[in-house]
Amino acid sequence: MNRRSAMSTLIGAVGSAALGHALRAQESHAFVGEIKAIAFDAFVIFDPRPIEKRVTEIVPDKSIEFANLWRARQFEYCWLRTAAGRYVDFWQVTDDALRYTANSLKVVLNISKQDDLMDAFRSLPLWPDVAAGLGLLRQRGIRLALLSNFTSAMLDANLKATGLREFFEPHLTTDRVQSYKPSAQAYKMGQDAFGLQKSAIAFAASAAWDAAGAKWFGYPTVWVNRGGNPTEELDARPDVVAGNLSGLVDFVGRS
């Protein structure tokens, strides 16, 4: 199987997928107008935990260390390449980070095992609350798009596997601007694609750093914090912190 054909990424904010009522932990006092569109980070929709399970199967003796280093190096490479203006797509970044991790931890991975780890990103499952949440948002006439570091091929493969393609407008992948989040160029794709003011576009983040980046850009922001992680100590806080997608649906309903 060709490793350069689709999918990738681990992410911060991986944890409990339990359903229940969203807990609104924080709200900004900034005015939020009528929300007409939502830009989603991919991991608000797709559950990345099976990637860690695959790591455990292939690298059982060092699975935690391996998964953590792969994830950290993956995002460090994104940010370094953005700062240096040396963009390559996220699939390549993830592959590079995988090879670095194996070399660093002295783990021997043959081509088959490398492909198996990379292919874990090709068919990520949905979080359990996603289908119902997207249905409610569509009933309200809210426009939806994925604004992600993932390549279009990665997003297409996951949407095809989950049957959600019909919900989303064309992908806002960072390949369009060759600059990874939290670059302002990445977030601006949402404003350009929807043709709306920032105040009319909610950003749904799965990681605290992404929520901060979206707020810096100026979007009303909901952090879907499924793992119960702490907010970043940065001068930007999400408008709402919620345990699942219900918090986003409620936020849009109040706008």
Topology:
Blueprint: E1 37-40, H1 42-45, H2 49-58, H3 63-84, H4 90-104, H5 111-119, H6 130-139, E2 143-148, H7 152-162, E3 172-173, H8 184-194, E4 201-205, H9 208-217, E5 221-224, E6 240-242, H10 246-254
Parallel strand pairs: 1-2, 1-4, 2-3, 4-5, 5-6
Helix pairs in contact: 2-3, 3-4
Written overview of the protein:
The chain has 255 residues and is of the alpha/beta class. The protein folds into 2 domains: 37-47 and 124-254, Rossmann fold; 49-119, Putative phosphatase, domain 2 (DNA polymerase, domain 1), CATH 1.10.150.240. It has 10 helices and 6 strands. The chain has helices at residues 42-45, 49-58, 63-84, 90-104, 111-119, 130-139, 152-162, 184-194, 208-217, 246-254, and strands spanning 37-40, 143-148, 172-173, 201-205, 221-224, 240-242. A 6-stranded parallel sheet has the order 3-2-1-4-5-6, with helices on both faces. Strand 2, helix 7 and strand 3 form a beta-alpha-beta unit. Mean pLDDT is 88; it is low at 1-31.
Q: What's the quick description here?
A:
With 255 residues, the chain is an alpha/beta fold. The chain is 44% helix and 9% strand.
Write a concise keyword list for the protein shown above.
255 residues; alpha/beta; Rossmann fold; DNA polymerase, domain 1; 2 domains; six-stranded parallel beta sheet
